[in-house]
Each structure stands twice: as structure tokens, then as C-alpha cells.
Specification:
Chain A: InterPro entries: ABC_transporter_permease, MetI-like, MetI-like_sf. The complex is a heterodimer of chains A (291) and B (280). Chain A has 291 residues and is an all-alpha fold. Chain A is 73% helix and 0% strand. Chain A has one domain: Orthogonal Bundle (MetI-like fold), CATH 1.10.3720.10. By secondary structure, chain B is mainly α. Chain B folds into two domains: 93 residues, no CATH class; 163 residues, MetI-like fold (Orthogonal Bundle). Chain B is globular and about 70 Å long. The chains are: A mainly alpha (291), B mainly alpha (280). At the A-B interface, helix 1, helix 3, helix 4, helix 5 and helix 7 of A face helix 1, helix 3, helix 4, helix 5 and helix 6 of B.
């Protein structure tokens, strides 16, 4: 099969996927960008070109900055913690261990639950007074605490939920990678008399770098993509202390029906994500040794 | 190595292993605690929701009450239909596209592949506002198809299958061609069977993703006839129940139960298929 025939076959094979991809990814992305330069159509008034006004509104909105700060803090803490925990879990489960299957199951179980269900469970936990956490604290006489009602603790409370949910998922990737490291390397290291820590630092960890890159890019995207728990636990409150960017976009688009503002915030989110993803790729890629 | 250092090495490794076991179990129990707590609350009468007495009476009444309080049977049917629809259409579309990218030469290939990979970053979740407008124009608001459509052409799926197809030896394809198989015949008889672990791994990821998906279904559905369990659960626990934690927890476990049980039964296969699919 040569030339034209091959071209046509290639295009035909691609076309169903590409049509849908264009319709629901590229077209809406371009339209969103376009819409960010127009006012929101309301009733009989159609959208009119306003230039950069929407961006001005966005950048002078205190709530936007607060939400952006929240999201960066949320990402900055949950990503390293869940990736590190995932690696520790994978190392635990990959070693000789009594009840390995059970332990692996406990790490993995939260990842299978819908985030919305996880949020329900944790909402119950955080209930002031009779929730599980306050009960444990009650054992040493600490009083009631309203974790989700306090602007200082609410974001932290959501981070705990995210880490609990995500770590086990990333563990699977590390586990799959660990099992491809040949046992002969460990035996050689043991004969050399190197400690487990040295072996980890000098052999295991460098070999896992491609996995770390893959997992952390995923973690970055997830930290901006998953906002389901906010709907159940806080609705962004109190005082927007627990709102994240995508939730802010949802509110603008479907609560206040200000689609122009939502489009502008979407563009801000996409730009931020691209910068983070590209930056991360270049930063980590230099340290990755592909086999 | 002298006998002395050997003994020390054996000693430290035993010591290491004990520490390792303690650490692994401590973390495991900590991780499992929230689930145990939820199970406790769901299987005991409301009076014991936050009181831990080892011989508190067990009950299934919370599940019965939750089941009767909202149309969960309908929600389950919707979710199963949604997950089946998404996963099967993803398999078909991604297989075709991945085959084109893996084994065909045509103008625009690199550009198109870049456009596909772009979806790994620009995910459907971020385009909810515009996609909602599109669904309205198409008249698809409040249909299961509307929940599924933005996810069907999956960049992740295409990438994953392309990587797998590229490892298939070309000789196999040529042998099939000599036997008279056409393009689709080769794809179906040579490539698809060899990519089984990838399909399994991707299928599991996709099923759990769409079983658990919430934001887009919340936006695009507004009736019992289309709502998946996640949206049903949120409507149920926010509006109908007040704060009867026993019933809410029972409903929560009920909606996640089928998936949880399936994954726990198949977790070994799950990890192995990830390894064979080369996702690492």
C-alpha cells in the first residue's frame, strides 16, 4: 500500500476521532478564547466586542486572586505530598511483607471511590462535635473545632481529602515501574554491601524518574481539574477560602450566568496549566534517564 | 566480607524488615480508617453512628431507607449505560485513530498527533461553558449521549494504543496481508488481540473515571431519567436527607460499592495490566 491510498486510509481511520475531538476540544477552546473579548449576551442584548475589558474585570476581581492563590497553594502542597506518599506506599507494597495484598488494598481503595462519595464521608468526619476527628481530639480533652467553617483550616481540610484519594492511584504507576527493576541490581548492591537507603537513592529513585514525571504531570492537572468535593463540603466558603479555579468558573458560568467572565477565567486557567505543564516537563525532563 | 559483617548485615536486614512491616501496616490502617468508619455507620442504627460499642446491633435498614428515599435503581441504570457507551465508543474510535498514527504515513500526521495530545492538557472539564452551549444547539441537554460525547475521542486512549501498536512486529502485518486481509482485517486480527492488556488497563481507568465523574454530568443533566449515581447521590444527600448520617453513608457506600468490589477482586490483574501496557 503506497502513496495516495495510504493517505486516504490514514485519514479515514482518523476522521471519527478527530471530528469529535475538534467538536468538543478544539472548537470550544477557540470559541472560549473568542468569547473572552465580548460581553455576555443577556436577553435581547447580544454580545458586543469589548476588547480586553473582561480581562481587566478578571484581574481586578479580588475573588479571582484569592481563588488563584488557593489553587496554587492547594497544588503546591497536595502534589508533593501525594506523590511522595505514593512512592512510599509502592516501596512498602513491593517489599516482602506479611499481608501484602491487604495493605495494598487499603492504599488503593480510596482511589476507586467517586470523589463526591469521598466528600460525603469526610464531611461526616469533619462535623463539629460528633464527627470522627473531634471525637479523637476529645480523647485528650480538646474542644470542638469547625474545620470546614473556619477560613484558616478549610483549605487544609480539603487537601487532606485530595491526598487520601490520590496517593493510592499514583502508587499503582510506581508499583508497575518498580516491578520492572531487575532483582539482579539489588543482589549486586547487597554484595557490594550498600545499604537500602543508598540503593534507593542511587539506583531505584533515578530509575523511577520517568514515572515521577508522568505522575506529577497528572497530579498537576488533577489539582486543577477535580473540584467535586467542594460542591459537597464547602461550596467554596467560608469567604471563598476553599474555592478553586474550576469551581470559580463553574459559578461564573452556571450560577451567575456570566459566560463572558467564565470564558475569560477559563483562558486564564488554560494559560496557567500550559505554563505549569511545559515548565515541569523541561525542569524534570533534564533529570530523567530514559532506558 | 567477613563472617562478622555478614551477621550484622543479616541483623540489620531483619530489623529493616520489621520496621518496614510496621510502617506499611500503620499507614494502611490510617488509610483504611475513614472507610471502616463509614462502613460502621452504614451498618448500625443511627444511635450508634458515632458511638463505638463492639456489640452494637447490625442492620441493613439504612440501605433500605436510602434505596427507597431516592430513585437509585434508575441512577444505576443511567451510570451503567453511560459507562458502557463511553468505554465501547472510546475503544472503537481510539483503536482506529491509534492504528493510523502507528502505521500510516500521510500529510499532516505530526500536526494532527499534536492536536490529539493537546487534549491531555485541555480536558473537557475545562470547557464546560462552551460545551454546554454546543449541547444546547444540538438539542442534547439532559441526555446520556451529552454526558458521553466530549469524552469519546480520548487523547489518552489514542496515545496509549498507538504506543502499544508500535511494538507489534511489522512481519505479522505483512503475513496477514499476504493471506489477503484488508486494512481493517489486519487491525482486527493482528493488532487488537496483541493489545489486550492495554485495552484492559485503559478500560479499567475509563470505567472508573466515568463512573466517578461528577461536574459535567451535573451541568448537563437535570432529570432522574439521565442523572448518573454521582449526581443522584449529591442531590440526595444535599436536599432530601437533612443530616441523617447513617442513611447518607449507606447511600454513599451503595453508589461506590459495585466499583469498589470489582476493583478489589481484580486488583492483581489491574496492576499487571498496567505493567504490561507499559504505563509507567
Amino acid at each position: 500500500m503506497m502513496g495516495r491510498r495510504e493517505w486516504i486510509h490514514g485519514w479515514l481511520l482518523l476522521s471519527p476521532a478527530l471530528i469529535l475531538l475538534f467538536a468538543f476540544t478544539h472548537y470550544p477552546a477557540v470559541v472560549t478564547f473568542w468569547a473572552s473579548f465580548f460581553s455576555t449576551p443577556r436577553g435581547k442584548r447580544s454580545a458586543k466586542f469589548v476588547g480586553l475589558e473582561n480581562y481587566q474585570t478578571l484581574l481586578t476581581d479580588d475573588k479571582f486572586w484569592q481563588v488563584l492563590y488557593n489553587n496554587l497553594l492547594y497544588a503546591g502542597i497536595t502534589i508533593p505530598v501525594s506523590v511522595a506518599l505514593a512512592l512510599i506506599m509502592a516501596l512498602f507494597v513491593n517489599s516482602k511483607l506479611h499481608g501484602r495484598g491487604f495493605v495494598r488494598m487499603t492504599y488503593f481503595a480510596p482511589t476507586v471511590l467517586p470523589l463526591i462519595a469521598v466528600a460525603n464521608i469526610w464531611l461526616f468526619f469533619y462535623t463539629p462535635g460528633f464527627g470522627f476527628i473531634d471525637q479523637v481530639r476529645g480523647l485528650w480533652g480538646a474542644g470542638e473545632a469547625n474545620w470546614l467553617g473556619n477560613p484558616d483550616t478549610v483549605l487544609g481540610a480539603l487537601m487532606v481529602v485530595a491526598v487520601w484519594k490520590e496517593a493510592g492511584f499514583f502508587m499503582i504507576f510506581y508499583l508497575a515501574a518498580l516491578q520492572t527493576i531487575p532483582p539482579s541490581l539489588r543482589e549486586a548492591a547487597a554484595i557490594e554491601g550498600s545499604s537500602r537507603w543508598t540503593f534507593f537513592r542511587r539506583v531505584t529513585f533515578p530509575l523511577l524518574m520517568p514515572t515521577t514525571l508522568f505522575v506529577s504531570v497528572n497530579a498537576v492537572i488533577n489539582s486543577f481539574r477535580l473540584v467535586d468535593h467542594i460542591f459537597v463540603m464547602t461550596e467554596g466558603g467560608p469567604d471563598n477560602a476553599s474555592s478553586l479555579l474550576l469551581y470559580y468558573i463553574y459559578e461564573a458560568g452556571f450560577k451567575f450566568w456570566d459566560t463572558a467572565h467564565a470564558a475569560t477565567a477559563t483562558i486564564a486557567l488554560l494559560v496557567l496549566l500550559s505554563v505549569l505543564a511545559i515548565g515541569q516537563f523541561f525542569l524534570v525532563d533534564r533529570k530523567v534517564h530514559y532506558r | 566480607m567477613s563472617v562478622d559483617t555478614m551477621e550484622i548485615a543479616v541483623d540489620t536486614s531483619r530489623y529493616d524488615r520489621i520496621l518496614n512491616t510496621i510502617g506499611a501496616w500503620a499507614l494502611g490502617l490510617l488509610w483504611f480508617l475513614p472507610l471502616i468508619y463509614a462502613v460502621w455507620t452504614a451498618f448500625h442504627p443511627g444511635a450508634y453512628a458515632t458511638r463505638f460499642e463492639p456489640f452494637a446491633p447490625l442492620t441493613l435498614q439504612n440501605f433500605v431507607n436510602a434505596w427507597n428515599a431516592a430513585p437509585f435503581a434508575h441512577y444505576f441504570v443511567n451510570t451503567v449505560m453511560l459507562v458502557t457507551m463511553v468505554t465501547l465508543s472510546q475503544f472503537v474510535l481510539c483503536t482506529l485513530a491509534a492504528y493510523a498514527f502507528a502505521r500510516f504515513e500521510f500529510p499532516g500526521k505530526t500536526l494532527l498527533f499534536t492536536l490529539v495530545l493537546l487534549q491531555l492538557l485541555v480536558m473537557p472539564e475545562m470547557l464546560i461553558v462552551e460545551n454546554y452551549q454546543t449541547m444546547r444547539v444540538l438539542g442534547l441537554i439532559d441526555t446520556i449521549a451529552a454526558i458521553a460525547l466530549p469524552y469519546v475521542a480520548s487523547g489518552f486512549g489514542i496515545f496509549l494504543l498507538r504506543q502499544t501498536f508500535m511494538t507489534v512486529p511489522k512481519e505479522l502485518e505483512e503475513a496477514a496481508r499476504i493471506e489477503g486481509a484488508g486494512t481493517l482485517g489486519i487491525l482486527w486480527k493482528v493488532y487488537v488481540p496483541l493489545a489486550k492488556p492495554t485495552y484492559l488497563a485503559y478500560g479499567l481507568v475509563s470505567v472508573s473515571y466515568h463512573w466517578n465523574n461528577f461536574l459535567w454530568p451535573l451541568i448537563v443533566t437535570n432529570s432522574v431519567e439521565t442523572r448518573p449515581v454521582t449526581v443522584g447521590l449529591s442531590v440526595f444527600s444535599s436536599v432530601d436527607q437533612g443530616i441523617d448520617w447513617s442513611i447518607i453513608t449507606a447511600a454513599t457506600l451503595m453508589t461506590s460499592g459495585p466499583l469498589l468490589i470489582a476493583f478489589l477482586l481484580f486488583q492483581r490483574q489491574f496492576v499487571q495490566s498496567f505493567m504490561r501496557a507499559g504505563i509507567k
